[in-house]
């Protein structure tokens, strides 16, 4: 019998805890300020205060503070028509005398005409100048004999390269160059045409 009594007391204790937990959960959902053994006021307004008791504190901005009482509101004197301040002098602390702006470049889209194109023929002139120093010529007489004496005469020349060197040419060689100029308007007259300082203005036929 003692074991059954102990089991029943434990079951009753668990049922009490469950009922208490349900009450706490219901109170948390319905009214945050009403909990068993716990009271919390976030000081947001006067809704959680006892309205039947005279309150000596004031709630403002989440804080409980002493109230401020105002007997009367100070008004401006009748001889002052507008708000006035004490005499003062302005002092320059920070100044920005320049500013950054923007402007259009060539707003009217006015462009110079494209320069004329000149085509040279030949455009590139490559040439090689070779200076050769000859060694002394050697003349040999070949005599071939086989079974009988055969005498023949011949001349052979041998070339021996003693040295070789290269360097850029100091002056250009003189050649004929043809040029074609294009990019001018119809019937546009040319005042002058020069090539390396030499006048090459074409003459109209």
List the helices and strands and how they pair.
Elements: H1 2-30, E1 58-60, E2 63-65, E3 117-121, E4 143-145, E5 149-151, E6 178-182, E7 194-195, E8 198-199
Describe this structure in words.
With 205 residues, the chain is of the alpha+beta class. It has a domain at 2-50 and 57-65. It is 14% helix and 13% strand. The chain has one helix and eight strands. It has one helix at residues 2-30; strands spanning 58-60, 63-65, 117-121, 143-145, 149-151, 178-182, 194-195, 198-199. The strands form four sheets. It has a two-stranded antiparallel ribbon. Strand 4 and strand 5 (149-151) form a beta hairpin.
The stretches of 5 or more residues where confidence is low (pLDDT under 50) are: 135-150
Tell me, what's the shape?
elongated
Specify the biggest β-sheet.
2 strands, antiparallel
Query: H/E series, N to C?
Result: HEEEEEEEE
Q: Strand content of the residues, in percent? A: 5-15%
How far the N terminus sits from the C terminus, by CA atoms, comes to 144 Å
How many DSSP helices? Answer: 1
Q: What value does the average pLDDT take?
A: 76
Strand order of the largest sheet: 1-2
Cα Rg: 59 Å
Q: State the helicity in percent bands.
A: 10-25%
Features:
205 residues; alpha+beta; two-stranded antiparallel ribbon; two-stranded antiparallel sheet; 8 strands; 14% helix; 13% strand
Task: Kindly summarize this structure in a few lines.
By secondary structure, this protein is an alpha+beta fold. The protein is 14% helix and 13% strand. The strands form 4 sheets. A two-stranded antiparallel ribbon has the order 1-2. The protein has a two-stranded antiparallel ribbon with strand order 3-6. It has a two-stranded antiparallel ribbon with strand order 4-5.
